[in-house]
Amino acid sequence: MAYRAVKLFIALALPAFGLLSLLGGAEPTGCCPRKGVPLFADRLSRFQDRLAEAGIDVALITDDDNVYYLTGYYDYLHMEFGRPTILVVPKDDDALLITPTIDLNAAKQTARVGRIAPWNDGMGDEWRAELPDAVKSAGKVAIEPGQMPPPVRAYVDQLVDAERIISATPILNDMRMIKSPEELQLARHAGQVATAMMNAGRAAIGDGVAEFEVAIATSQAGTRKAAELLAAHYDDTDMSPMTHFLQIMASGDEVVKTHHRASTRIMKRGEPVFLCFCGMTNFHRFKLGFDRSFWIGEAPDDQVAVYEVAVASQKAALNALRPGVTAESVHAAYAEVIQGAGYEYPFRCGRATGFSFLEAPQLVTGERTIIQPGMVLAVDGSVSVETYRAQVGDSFIITENGWEPLSHHPKSVEEVIL
After folding, report:
1. Do residues 267 and 296 make contact, with C-beta atoms less than 8 angstroms apart?
2. Is the pTM of this model over 0.70?
3. Which end of the chain, N or C, is less packed with Cβ atoms under 10 Å?
4. b/e per residue, 332-346, with b = 16+ CB within 10 A?
């Protein structure tokens, strides 16, 4: 273990790598998570320590977000193209990245690993070539059962007896649950991007406007805000500011469809409109949840009554949200308001976010994780009836005494009638 400690000390001692310095909540200048070797070196070293503590000899990591979290490598061709990337992490040796040759240049520039093994389509054993040696002397081999692609899992099962396979997911979930100061700064910037998109969407909604026009406006606003933040605070010129996700929105009778995408439908006065940025808020790979319900011109009384219950359910959840409580207790406060008004809650109250859209813990019945400072949580309020659906959601950093909001937009009935 000594050689890893020396390597980590050297990395931390080199100011040229641009380690972030966040003092007293001040915003960083010229920070660069991708180029900040100490950040990824520390994560990988801590992960190896956790493997050793758990008696695991090697981990095979295939989830895209976990590969990025541990190495800084991202935007390679994924399994949709039939090309797996596998991060091999021994408990006491350098990490190995197995990735397609087509992405080798990107891997060389970004991946903070000891060795890269590129593989090419149809040549030799492709991505399989390195795995036998990686696991042959290992007692316990950790994988991500829910994220490992089926072809890779099938091959690993040929190499490793079932009793030697263990899950790495609990270790990674636990590591990623409490965000570092660098990650919290990314979260705050992601909140600015989300707020810019919501403001632009609100301004674009109107009688006679097509839904897709709203989506164009939100995408442009998010991209411009992200580009502004990247230029002002980061040295990573390769990180794209572009927002990329089909806008979740619905209007009129379609508003009951929770994940309806922006269409050519023309909105009309008196109709409800729903905007959701849970898939679009993705700044420097950090994700948040954020959504609002609106009306154009006027709001029917029966819909307003439902909307106010949704707002009240989020307020109840936020009143319960603080360090030291269980995640399920926050959900219980939200559900109690909805059920007390005569409705069934439509989904969990919320979830943790970070470099993935869904992280641990979730705010749901049965989740007994204790809420802690440094978590980032999306917290919703919602009610669904046959002809209308209301939803308001925001993201928060858990602080020592409560929470810090990341997304900002009005919720009162008067302020969401456009």
Report:
1. yes
2. yes
3. N
4. bbbbebbeeeebebb
